Amino acid sequence: MSSSREQIFANIRRGLKRDALQGDALKAVQGRLKEHPSNTIPARSKLPHNEQIQLFIEMVAEASAELIKLDNSSEFPFAVNKFLGENKLTHLVSANSAELSQLDWSVLRDITIERRPAQAGDLVSLTSSFAGIAETGTLMLLSGADSPTTLNFLPDIHLVMLRQSNIVGAYEEAWDKLRSQRAEMPRTVNMITGPSRSADIEQKLQMGAHGPKRLVIFLVAE
Amino acid sequence: MTLTNPPHRVGLFVTCLVDMFRPSIGFATVKLLEQAGCIVEVPDTQTCCGQPSFNSGDRSSTAEIAKNVIDAFDGFEYIVGPSGSCIGMLRQYPELFSDNDPYKARAETLATRAYEITSFLTDILSFDQIIADYQGSITYHDSCAGLRELGVKNQPRQLLGKIDNLDIKEMNEAETCCGFGGTFCIKYPDISNRMVSNKSSNAEDTGAKTLLGGDLGCLLNMAGKLKREGSTIEVRHVVEVLANMTQAPAIGEAQYDLANEL
Amino acid sequence: MQINSPDFKNSSKKALDNPGLQKALGNLRNGFPVKRANAVQRMPEFELLRNEGRDIKNHVIANLDFYLEEFETNVTKNGGNVHWACDAEDARKAILDICQKANAKTVTKGKSMVSEEINLNEYLESNGVQPVETDLGEYILQLREDHPSHIIAPAIHLNLDDVSSIFSEKHGTPHTSDPAALMQEAREVLRDKFVAADVGITGANFCVAETGSTIIVTNEGNGDLTQTLPRVHIVITTIDKVVPTLEDMSLFLRLLARSATGQEFTVYNTLSTGPRRENDADGPEEYHVVLLDNGRSEMIGTQFQDMLRCIRCSACMNHCPVYGAVGGHAYGWVYPGPMGSVLTPKLIGIEKSGHLPNASTFCGKCESVCPVHIPLPKMMRHWREKEFEKHLSPKGFRFGIGTWAYFAKRPALYRWLARASAFSLKLMGGKSRRIRSLPLKNGWTAWRDLPAPEGGTFMDQWKKNQSTETSPSHPDNKCRS
What we know:
The structure holds 3 protein chains of 3 kinds. Chain A is α/β, with parallel strands linked by helices. Chain A folds into 2 domains: 1-37, no CATH class; 48-220, Rossmann fold. Chain A has helices at residues 3-16, 23-35, 49-62, 76-86, 98-101, 171-181; strands spanning 66-70, 91-94, 112-115, 124-128, 131-133, 138-142, 157-163, 167-168, 188-192, 197-198, 206-207, 214-220. The model of chain A has no long low-confidence stretch (mean pLDDT 95). By secondary structure, chain B is of the alpha/beta class. Chain B has 2 domains: 9-123, Rossmann fold (3-Layer(aba) Sandwich); 130-261, Rossmann fold (3-Layer(aba) Sandwich). Chain B is built from 14 helices and 8 strands. In chain B, the strands form 2 sheets. Chain B has a 4-stranded parallel sheet with strand order 2-1-3-4, sandwiched between helices. In chain B, strands 6-5-7-8 form a 4-stranded parallel sheet. In chain B, strand 7, helix 12 and strand 8 form a beta-alpha-beta unit. Chain C folds into 3 domains: 50-294, Rossmann fold, CATH 3.40.50; 299-393, Alpha-helical ferredoxin (Fumarate Reductase Iron-sulfur Protein, Chain B, domain 2, Orthogonal Bundle), CATH 1.10.1060.10; 405-468, no CATH class. Chain C has 24 helices and 12 strands. Chain C has helices spanning 8-16, 19-29, 32-41, 46-62, 64-77, 88-101, 113-117, 120-126, 136-144, 160-171, 179-196, 222-228, 246-260, 315-318, 321-326, 337-348, 350-353, 355-358, 365-369, 376-389, 395-408, 411-429, 442-445, 458-468, and strands at 81-85, 106-109, 130-133, 199-202, 206-208, 213-218, 232-238, 242-243, 268-272, 286-292, 434-435, 450-451. In chain C, helix 4 packs across helix 13 and helix 16 runs parallel beside helix 20 (376-389). The radius of gyration of chain C is 27 Å and the shape is elongated. The model of chain C is unreliable at 471-481 (pLDDT under 50). At the A-C interface, helix 1, helix 2, helix 6, strand 9 and strand 10 of A face helix 2, helix 4, helix 5, strand 1 and helix 9 of C.
């Protein structure tokens, strides 16, 4: 306990004209925290799931990300291979999440794949995504042993696999999903909506500031 | 108008600028109110709404002035004035008095009875029998207090829309402050000048013949700028057009009607 | 940052006479407000969200001690450290201490106005730690030894040429007028700095009590590299940034993006919760949150409490005609525009910043776009009241208002004054009906005419009409129903 801390709390309570919360008042705020009620969720994303997917696709395009639709996850390595070939890329740094590692990557014969955090100079990275949020075409990625955060930011191009079943309507649904699947918050939760940009020079928008210049989402139906 | 209801008894809040600079706005307001079936009286103990002292941080003088206004308009069903700014000030009177001050409750009822003229005609009286001739195009400046404190936006346009040959050409940034701001234009004249320059060029860009608004302070500011720039745009208060009283020279215009003068 | 607020009048004159700045401000006026309006249009629930935002912030302030404790508990539970700082000095020391323990030579920084508030860069430099700003705008300013003029678009006062010149000078590269090339140049230079830094310092847009997380909102991704690559992550933020839950944060993120840049959502919304976990592949080993008060706790229970709702979106300054005329530097300290005109007097004293709450027409545009309904004009008026009480307003002005109020309280005298003024001003107007110069009111007539009165007061004419005719009340009135 520092003296600054005591001073700050004393000031706050003096301003509020009360001591530390207790009794019903305390229970009320504890209850609110525990229940974490949603506020108004815009109607925009309150749709049947197939329409949420459509909304996600539209909002991703609006955010200047690219999206490639795939029927089946087994097509994903082929699609990545095609993308890398078309863009003359020979090195791929990849996350090692279960979703990715269970796929057969043998098709990438001419590509060097490294499963590690990103380093300066890496041109293209590959990760999976915990959720897609239809409301604004936003990806939610979680840090972990198999999913380094640097992959989302250092390389010039970020390739992301997202399963359609992981698309939700609003941010609140993504938090529910996170709470139900994880016992605790990961160190980093990234909500990503399109590639990096800046308008700091004369208010004119330029793509590719410090993060990826291209964000490519592979949306897998099954 | 149906005559089944007894006429509304309205006290006119003249406003100090209208009193001193352009009485014709006051008469135009009276004319419109009477056309709408109101009985209009003008309490002669009224002075000013108190805004200059309120915005200068002098609360106690403001409260004194407010008491005078409250007393002057006691007993009137409505208080109506040709200014969103002054009427907006009247609506703020309750916060000048403590709960145990007898003026508090009176300030509260005054606030509920006070209306800007175009809003009163439209929102309270549903009056739209505008009898006016006007040829040509106008553009409309939304004065800040009327717009944001009282929600005056469509009312003047709706009333102007009843005039056959009047064409409304909206300007860019119609809702942006003209830079008058009461004492602001005296304290920060160069910033005020930049703001009114933006306004005058937006008004010029519409090609409209006349610039209308609902607050004489803003109109004096904009007319002063337009005239200094040599613009031919006429500046008038909206009630002058609505009451068909555009024979008098526009604000800051030189043409005299000699017959009227004599 | 040095305090230049007392010089507001001179600074604003210079700003008005600076064509480069005026061009830049034109970009602002035609940019953010239009984008915000479009974004709001697309979100039918926006007004509802604003009301909820206001209510949640009020709820947080009413329970601020509880939520701060909860936040602290959860940061600690996740392996992070909270450092409480009463004032700027406390915060600077806490940060330097962490840097020194980490043997830091360079620190990368994400954009933070709180860092400006506590003058962090100068302090670190003078203590042998080199700060590197990584937000593109902040980086440009650091090269120019300049300061932000806007809370989310720090270099908005500069034009392309300014950026091109400083990059060429400092990077030793040829001049280019291609903004994309300039951005690429900054990207390459900063890439090495990100990797080399020992400590990364970011601000926080919100602190989530429920999880002990801090969140930063950026479009560039610089903040993310700043907080992920170095071994130590320090968050410098203030006690008013705490929100209860992820759901509440989500509401504010919706409001923030639309109010600030008119985006549907900012590109990167990144939550940090503690240091890297045991098996994590990357991320910082230490996570520190420095919670600064700096006078904010004293605003609770006062006329200025509502200011603590502010989420620093910049909508108020983007829409402010005064900010749009003079830009942010004229305000003379860290926080410009309407929110600054309320906050700055609290943080540096009304004695030094009296111009700020006075330099407003009370047009109310700021309040009308504020995502949490802060009554900014009303609070600027409260500062004027404080000034009036302390006799800080200029003497001549005070005398003028006092004299005027004397008459306004006395109807008979007032009638006489109005009559005399109407008469003399009409005389001065002469045949042109315009006054081109006026003693004592030079400010008005330097740039515009004063339209002369018609002649005679309304009250006198009305009385005359009333005594000569019973009805109608005006000779022109033929339509009484």
